[in-house]
Design a protein that fits this description.
By secondary structure, the chain is of the alpha+beta class. The protein is 28% helix and 34% strand. The chain contains six helices and twelve strands. Helix 3 crosses helix 5 and helix 3 packs across helix 6.
């Protein structure tokens, strides 16, 4: 992946992302950024790779991508002044920025599924993983661009043309930088954009399953589900969510 030096210089002066490192191969961009965070790297570090040999998703899953087929990127944030209870908003900002980038570069707008997946016609397009380390937050994203695993969606197919991964990365970083300074906007936009709200859902958790209607997202980023058949709404902080149908 290539980013013009003039674009890099502009990002360095107009956003917080002044250190962009493009790798051919790594085990995990999140791991690289976490290690650099522990060594004192400042906010704004970006690491992207053509290939990950041990890319991770939520719930200890792997993220699979053919060499050069996706946008694999992680950024380092040091959210001073943002309570840990609201760090979920940084993940929400990453998802919203991905929507903006897909719209700008590929003229397509995916669905944002709670908590952090981008979907297109019920097929997964991207996933976002946030990990806290050394007092910092590492945000990682894997987005299918030129191809994807069986059953997934990818941007080239959706756009009907070949998308330039460097352009997509730059658009994502610019949008993310703007959103990270306005947490109230992030919270309100996420509630509007999240396609899970208003759906009948099935939530799979360890040892249990919850079926009902996703009514809202609370201030802590949890999905509030009213159980099927009535009862007290349940705030879900983690789990696999399946969209069934509009409520």
């Amino acid at each position: 992946m290539f980013i013009d030096e003039r674009v890099r210089a502009d990002l360095a002066t107009t956003t917080r992302f002044s250190d962009i490192r493009l790798l051919e191969v790594t085990d995990s961009t999140n791991r690289v950024v976490a290690d650099l965070a522990g060594a004192g790297a400042p906010e704004g570090l970006v690491v992207s790779a053509d290939v990950q040999t041990a890319g991770r998703g939520r719930l200890d899953r792997t993220w699979e991508a053919e060499p050069g087929a996706g946008l694999l990127v992680s950024v380092l944030l040091r959210r001073r002044g943002l309570p840990i209870s609201r760090w979920h908003l940084a993940t929400a900002a990453a998802g919203l920025a991905a929507l903006d980038a897909c719209s700008e570069v590929a003229s397509t707008r995916p669905d944002l599924k709670w908590p952090n997946d981008l979907m297109m016609r019920s097929r997964k397009l991207a996933g976002i993983l946030a990990e806290s380390t050394a007092g910092a937050l590492v945000l990682g994203m894997g987005l299918n661009v030129h191809s994807g695993p069986p059953g997934s969606a990818w941007l080239d197919d959706l756009a009907g043309r070949r998308i330039v991964r460097g352009d997509l990365l730059v658009a994502w970083l610019r949008s993310l930088d703007r959103l990270l300074d306005d947490w109230d906007l992030v919270a309100s936009r996420y509630r509007v954009e999240c396609s899970t709200v208003g759906m009948e859902v099935s939530v799979e958790q360890v040892g249990s399953r919850l079926a009902g209607v996703a009514e809202s997202i609370d201030d802590e980023g949890r999905l509030v589900v009213r159980p099927a058949g009535g009862g007290t709404p349940v705030a879900v902080s983690a789990g696999d969510v399946v969209h069934l149908r509009p409520a």
